[in-house]
Amino acid sequence: MPRLFIAIRLPDFIKEDLVRLRDERMRAASWLPPEQLHLTLKFIGDWPVDQISEIEEALETIKTDAFLLEAQGVGRFPGKGRPRVLWTGLGTAHPRLFQIKHRIENDLLRLGVEPDPRVYQPHITLARCTGATSEDVAPFLKQQRDYTSPPFRVTGFSLMESTLTSRGPLHEERTAFALET
To answer: Which domain covers residue 53, as residue numbers?
Structure first.
């Protein structure tokens, strides 16, 4: 069964900008390669191959105008205790981002995909941490707290497949869905 999620793929110039945030001195951080950077809209999980077309048909109906986003600031998950993830946020984001997220949740619920009970906090994962302490990541968080990326235009979203490997997950686009431009 493929492991699926829905994401906004980032333009190359944004990936290059995010790579410049890396602090290679943080040995407990595994920085994601540029090709793995994305903005997750919905994690679906394992899904039967013969039912993927139902998801694609539901996603095809989601239409809105293209919009601009910019990454802003950095943070960590969880907020307390040992950090597991370093990320950049989307500030207040654009209302269309939340409209798309809402439509995805509603449309996939009809297919039996449970909604995420957590409040959606749009972010782009930059690194995964293993054995890091709050003190290990504090300098990075302080140094990059005012980070703002150049604005980028969101012209679509994608159904993605994630394959877990010993070197981390590999993401591959299955189907792209265009917004109105």
So the answer is: 3-178
